[in-house]
Every structure is written in C-alpha cells, then in structure tokens.
Amino acid sequence: MSLATQRAGWSRLPLRAAAFVVLTCATILGVSGWREWAARDAVLRGAETEMANVARSLTQHAEDSLDLLDSGVVGVVSRLEMDGTAPATIAKLRTLLEVRKKAIERVHSLAIIDDQGNWLTSPGMIGSTLSDDAFFRYHQLSPKREPYVGRPVKSLLDGEWVVTLSRRFNKPDGSFGGVVLATISSKYLSHFYEQFEIGRNSSVSLTHGDGLIIARNPSNETFVGRSVSDKPLFRDASLQRPSGAYYFKSPLDGAERVSFFKRSSRFPLLLLATVDKDELLAPWRAAAISRMLYVVALVMLIAVIGAVLVRQLQRGQRMAAALVEKEAHFRLLAEGSSDMVTRIGLDERLRYVSPSSARVVGWRANQLIGTPALAGINPEDLPEVQAIVDAMKRGEREEARLTYRNSHRQNGEVWLESTMRVTRKDNGRVDGVVAISRDITEHKKLETRLETLAIEDSLTGLANRRRFDERLKEEWARAYRDRSSLALLMIDVDHFKAYNDEYGHPAGDACLRLVAKIIAAETQRAGDLAARYGGEEFAMLLPNTDAVGCALFGERIRSAIHEAGLVHATNLESGCVTASVGGATCRPALERTAGVASLVEAADRALYAAKDAGRDRLVMSGELMNLMPKASGQ
Q1: Residue 516 CB neighbour total at 10 angstroms
Q2: Which end of the chain has a smaller Cβ tally under 10 Å, C or N?
Q3: Where in this chain does the record put each PAC domain (predicted)?
Q4: pTM higher than 0.90
C-alpha cells in the first residue's frame, strides 16, 4: 500500500469511527437482545430440570408404591400355594389383608380371586365375578409369575378409580389357581402430588402405558380415566424414549406447557410433570423490559461519547500517520530478515513475530503472537534467560546476547542465539524488548562433536590420553583433599606387534576394540575411567580404591581377556590373546611431595615386571613408597 493510499484512509478515519460507534451501539443492542433470549432459554432449561427432578421422584414413588403392593401380594401367593384355598386359610388371609390395608395408607384394596373369577376375600359382599377383566384373563392365559399392572378401572367396592397390581397363583398340580389383586387409589396419588408446589398452573399426570390417565393433579376427578393415546407423546416416534423434555399445548386445558416425561423402566407407567409457560416466563419478561431500558440509556450515552471521540480523532490524524509510517518501516526490516524478530511486552508476551518464525521454531507468526515469550525455553536455561529479561525490563541492561535451547514444533529442540535490546517510550520508560533470534543447532552439534573428538579415542571409544591426563590430575587433587587412596592399572596386550604381523591391521584393530570393551565393562562406578594410553596399552583409573581392590580389578580384566579366547598363534605361552597388568596405589595426602607422574611410573614399572615374569599376569607395585619420599612427620 502506498503512503498516499494510507493517508487517504486516515482522512476517512473519523467517518469509520462514526460507523464503528453505530456498529457498537447496534452490537450492544443485539448482544443484549441475545442475552435476554439466552436468559429466557435458561429459565426454560431450569424449568426442564425442575420438572425432570419432579418426574423422576414421582416415578420412583409410583414404582415404590407398586413394589409395596407387590411384596404383600407375593406373600399371599406363597401362602396360597403352600396351604391351598381352604376356608380356614382364606379366613386367616382375609384378616391379614384387612390389617395390611389399614396399616398402609396407599393400599386401596387387597383381594383373592379363584380360578373362576369369584371373590374369595373382599371388603364387602360383591356378587359379580372378574372372569372378564383384563388382568384376570392375562393371568388365566399366561403362565408367567411376574406382577401385572393393569389399566386404571373403577373399583367395584366404592366406585373410585384405581390402578391394579396382580399376580397369579397356581394349584398344587401347576394349573391356574386364581389371582391375588392389590390396588392403589387414583385419589391417593393425586393427593400425594399436591405436595409438590411447582407453579400455580402446574400439573402432574401419571398415565398408563396405553394412554389412560391414572391420576392427575389438579382436577383429578375430571381427567382420570381419559385417554390421551392419540397425542404425540404416545404416537410420535421421537418421543418414545425413556425420558425427555416436552413442549406442547395441553389437550386438557389448552395451556402452553413446559414439561418433562419419564417412563418407568419396570412398569407400564409414564409420568408427565408440566408448568404453564406463560406463568413461568412472566418474571423474566418484567426483568427483561427493565434491563433493556438501561441498555437503551447506555447506548445513547455511548452515542454521545462516540461523537466526542470522532472529533478527537480528527485532531490526532497526523500523529497516527507518523506512527503507521514508523511501524511499517520496522515491519519491512523485520519481515525481510531470515532471523526471527520478536517484540516482547512488559507482560513477557509476544507482541510481534516475524514470518521467519516458521523456519526458526516451526510455528507461524499468528500462532505465537500473544503467547508467553519464554514458554518454549528449556527449563535448565530458563533461569538465566529470565534473569536477563527481568534486568532489561527494570532498565538495568540495554542489550544482551545469550544462547539457549528452545522447543521446535517439528524438530523437538533447537539451539537459538538471541540478541536482545530494550525499547523505550518517548518519555524514556521501558516498554518492551526486541529480540533477534537465529538457529545455531548445527553449530552446536559441531562444537559437541569436536569436544567429543578431543577427549575420546576414535578406535575404541574409551577416553584418550589427553582426557586420561586431565582426570588423573583431578582425581589426585580430590584424593588429596579427601585423604583417600587412588589406584591405577596399566594394561598391555602381549605380543601385539606379532599379532598385527600375523593377522593384519584390521584384525589388530578388532583385537584392541575387544580388549577395550572388556576393560570398559569393569568401569561400573561413576568415578572410574578407562582410557587408551597409547598403541596397545590401556590405563584404568580407580579413585578411592586400595591395593587389594586394585588387584581385584586387575585380575578380573586379565582373566576376562584370556577367557575371551581370541586366537594368537604367535603367543606361544597360551595360544590366545593375553594381557599383562601392572597396578599401583597411593594416598596423596601422605605423599605430599609426590605427583601424578610418580603413580604412573610405579604402575608402569609393575607392568614391565609382569612382562618380564612371563606375561599374562598381574603385578602390583611394591616399590612405590620407596620411589616417593615421605612427607615430614609421617
């Protein structure tokens, strides 16, 4: 974009600001309207939850009531099948049923009916039979023994609507013997539902599975026994689930309802708890009108403030233009660089990231802006970087250069070198830090490789002579401070020149690698060091080890080399590759005038003594104390 085009845009800034104020006011009105609608939905969802709790509780009550009836029915069935239907038995059971009915409020009636549909027990004299009733025919035709919950019917005793629960009992030969019947009054259930005050126009209905209303509150007498089987709750496939919210216009009283239905998983029952939608939303409507009046007043205030802001924007156009030019110049430099340029705010979050971030750390600029600037730094390097950033934020440092490890999206972790510089406001106060970072991972890998090559023998992988000399000095000084002992083993492959001449240099290299592997296997302690001393000669440094321990190490190494069984025909003594071992120990604190060279010399002499004695053996130096003068007073 050209500067002329930018300035044309700035000249239209007040108009855009005015449009922004209008949009803001419209947004506030829209958001407020949306929030009010959301509040309305929340009221409806809350009503659904409340109705769900009521429906679940009352469904459980209905199931518990039927279970209570069934427990009594089961006992009577067991008694009848054991004792039969003799008059004496029936008389006892009549008394028992009367006592149970009086003791349990929800039980309307309990009766025993024979295989012809005649009453064997009843609260009064009833001349009619029940042979044509649905529950009787069900048990007469079905051998099943589980309870059967029938449709609501009018009681023959007092004309009340009741729901029946019955079980079949059998004669001794297994044939149908009759039915034990228990009922719950619709009036009892309706009265129980009165305890749940969920709204002035709320209702609770218990319906049989075939759509007949068993009980309802309010107006139970008006609606009990009425069929609603043609309504969506029984016909719509999407509502044939165990439970759910249900919005409908009541076919009973014509009111819009918010409801929750619950189908019993054990009995053919459906409970529907509803609340009047208009009544439910009335408090919300009143509050919404009040809140919207405040919102309108706020929008008018914003409109006035916006008008003042537009005038102020006209005055600040030149300053804004200068700022844009400055920022454009910075971005031109930053986005043209192959290094990653970032700007870090005082809250340590990234304010700007150049496009080269995708190459340096694997993340695009838009993914990093706003994130913590130090989030990807390795925890071991983070304290140092954090300390420098803190010092720059306080104005104690103007710039810094540091190297650290940072996570990379694809490559795991990379090394970065960052140059940081403080940025300040016009008044001189620090407002952030600009960092220019580059990937120096390959450079670090090269450094690490060079360091490794400097201390490691390339053929055997053991420490080289340089590393051995450094560690020997370190361990000598440590042993002196700790007043501990220090041991050294010198190991030389016997007749190695003859081995090379016989089998060739590649075989000779393989032989040295095998010996090195055996020696390395013995360096099990953290302070032990195995090194290739030169040619076919190896050294093993053993801190805090006395002469006995040194001899044990040496003998294990010598024995392991021998037992490796590498053929060496020119080694006439054994016919395989062997090694001579010389060992020496000292206590630097007691031999203060001695140095590391004396220990090496003593071990070397012991090695040559082993060779002179026939090779393939260990000789410990017994002459070291004679070689090193005693400290005064020791």
Answers
A1: 20
A2: N
A3: 396-452
A4: no
